[in-house]
Amino acid sequence: MYVTIPSDHTMAESTAILAATTPSAPQAQLKRGAYLFFEGDDVEWLYQVKSGVLRLTRLLEDGRRQVIAFGYPGDVVGFPSDGKHHTDCDVLVSARLQPFRRAMLESGEGDPVLHAALLQAALREISAMQDHFMMLGRKSAVEKVASFLSVLDERVGQDQGQYRQVTLPMCRGDIADFLGLTTETVSRTLTQLRKSKIIAIENIQTVVILRPTALLGLSMGDRG
Amino acid sequence: MYVTIPSDHTMAESTAILAATTPSAPQAQLKRGAYLFFEGDDVEWLYQVKSGVLRLTRLLEDGRRQVIAFGYPGDVVGFPSDGKHHTDCDVLVSARLQPFRRAMLESGEGDPVLHAALLQAALREISAMQDHFMMLGRKSAVEKVASFLSVLDERVGQDQGQYRQVTLPMCRGDIADFLGLTTETVSRTLTQLRKSKIIAIENIQTVVILRPTALLGLSMGDRG
DNA sequence: CGCACTCTGTTACAAAACGTTACACTTTAA
DNA sequence: TTAAAGTGTAACGTTTTGTAACAGAGTGCG
Asked: Which of A61, B55, B66, B163 makes the best surface tag, with the fewest CB within 10 Å?
């Protein structure tokens, strides 16, 4: 999951699953904290997330970290480049995963439909990352956090009576490293949104969206 | 071209051209200022840059702009998502382009070798964009500009007697929008690098790298 | 059970980085 | 030649970060 510019097809497309195909391996179940792969590993499998949440990260030698993406249901992770993984990937919320052999993407032997579906997933990935560029490069802290919450709401928000509610399985540091901010700034910004009554923070992992329109406005550059 | 973490294979890989294949269209020659496509256009062709430089951009409604990438020889541009372009693309330096039908990527009918090569280009694109995330999200102004010059040097730098020399066909505003800075900051940072004798600015489009190691150091977080 | 300890998150204040504004200068195009 | 666009530089302002202190939740241990 990246922070993309809102669009109605986003969810439908990305969760359109590679379902009607012959899997080459049974689904795998992984617990919180487990690692799927590390940067530099040879790619054997791609994975489509069926349930749970993954985290993809890159590290700089001096310890700085960038969270590249969160893997939500429907997302495909593990695209190879030169046959290798270029991120670490671990499990944030215990996940069910559908593995696909790397060859299914790269040569498509056997199943052209699956091959095409994985290719389309890669192409969508490129487009989503382009959107995320705009966010990392050109948005303010408030816009970033507001965008993040909006996208998460659109993608996995739940109805909670009058309002909608978003669960944040990642810690503040993960959000910061995803949005290019510090944990303090993420924390301060959430407080600011709470004080403007745009969100409520029910508990540390649960945000209630009180004014979705205001949030969306902030994410696109309206003044607070 | 993205600002990726330096690696010896970068150039060899990306300029490894889709050469030994049957082109489905003759090469095209485009002049500075010409547009290849706009955001929202249906994708008919992908293009591999043979010579010249392209610029891929995205716009926000309020006018903020992100330069997504520069297209240098070897790069492939125009990957579709949902069949559409998601950036604008225009010509910075008059370019020779090899067009490939979109179907060559998406269905591969006719030429499996070409299909595989285009797919690999897309996968490399994903990896390069991940590196660029790190840069946009986690690097300071000096690190960004130093990284930019280092990558450009590695990719298209020319020998100039004792030193190496880089041509910047894009204006300061383009560099700024690529790195997530303002033109002033780009300008100040270049001045700063010039005053520390790490680069010399021969003319507005030509930078001489006096101390490549120092530049690389700065790009990875050493103090100035 | 209570206690110290760690980890995460929050807040306040100071500091740094970067952006904004303004203006001079150069180059390019009309 | 003049206007327009692009660039360089400086002073100033804003945003974001860094630092530090503290609160609360969870954990291990006596």
From this structure: A61
